[in-house]
Design brief:
Elements: E1 2-7, E2 12-17, E3 20-25, H1 36-51, E4 57-62, E5 67-69, H2 82-100, E6 106-110, E7 113-115, H3 117-123, E8 127-131, E9 135-137, H4 151-155, H5 160-169, E10 172-174, H6 175-181, E11 186-188, H7 193-205, H8 209-222, H9 227-242, H10 245-256
Length: 268
């Protein structure tokens, strides 16, 4: 079953196809730059995907060959009420937090430019699949700014000093270097991007949704904890998952030499 709807006019598309939801920025003439309205709409789409028990994976992408997302539309960053503008900028941080707390795997399908906030958006996803012509970078310093809001996804995705180098120099990074730095998981020819993303999404969707939700959430929750705090939290969660229905089904399937049957997770 496939369904599609537009948000913010036709600037953002949300499609559910089977167990995968795809959120596509549709501003190719602006290299898929983000407006505050588009960011707000992306948050609404993520909420819809999170609440849909049929959806197990979310894919983020951009329309066209030039860019996944070139960052925030600079034309919308100046003028108007300063308080309202400051609040609008906070939407990007909340979008990142929405991605981390979603409870379902996320994949960034990157072709072309992923710059500034667009790079932060890609790195806020769990996995990044990029074409061999993809380009990443944080050019804010070159226009008298600093990539404040994307600092967290950057330093969570590569060694901090490498992230700092990119932020200080503004230099651009190709897909192969991005993979060597650790923030791109797979590099493929442009013609193979869609098939690769489908393959990865299908693999993730086939996993037990409850264990995926709890385990993935624990990964993000414990990133900033001390080792002792993290281990204590993970110990509790291990007990919760080990006593659950999915573990019972998984172990039974292993013993009976059959594929496990995972039920969709109903969340209130």
């Amino acid at each position: 079953m496939s369904s599609t709807r537009d948000a913010v006019g036709d600037q953002l598309r949300y499609e559910v196809d089977g167990q995968t939801a795809r959120i596509t920025i549709n501003r190719p003439e602006q290299r898929n730059a983000l407006t505050w309205d588009v960011v707000a709409a992306m948050r609404a789409c993520l909420a819809a995907a999170g609440a849909d028990p049929e959806v197990r994976v979310v894919v983020l992408s951009g329309t066209g060959e030039r860019a996944f997302c070139s960052g925030v539309d600079l034309g919308g960053m100046a003028g108007g009420d300063p308080v309202a503008l400051h609040e609008a900028r906070g939407q990007l941080a909340r979008l990142f937090e929405d991605l981390w707390s979603l409870g379902k795997p996320t994949i960034a399908a990157v072709r072309g430019f992923a710059l500034a906030g667009g790079m932060g958006l890609a790195l806020s996803c769990d996995l990044v699949v990029a074409t061999d012509d993809a380009v990443f970078g944080t050019p804010e310093i070159d226009v008298g700014l600093w990539p404040f809001m994307i600092t967290v996804p950057l330093i969570r995705s590569m060694p901090p000093k490498r992230a700092l180098e990119l932020m200080m120099t503004g230099r651009r990074v190709g897909a192969d270097e991005a993979r060597s730095l650790g923030f791109v998981n797979e590099v493929v020819p442009a013609a193979d991007l869609d098939d690769t993303v489908v393959r990865v999404a299908t693999t993730l969707a086939a996993k037990p949704p409850g264990a995926m939700r709890i385990g993935r959430t624990s990964f993000y929750e414990t990133l900033d904890l001390t080792s002792s705090e993290a281990l204590a939290r993970l110990h509790v969660l291990l007990g919760e998952v080990a006593e659950g229905e999915e573990a019972a089904e998984g172990i039974a399937a292993f013993r009976e030499k059959r594929p496990p049957s995972w039920q969709r997770e109903e969340r209130g």
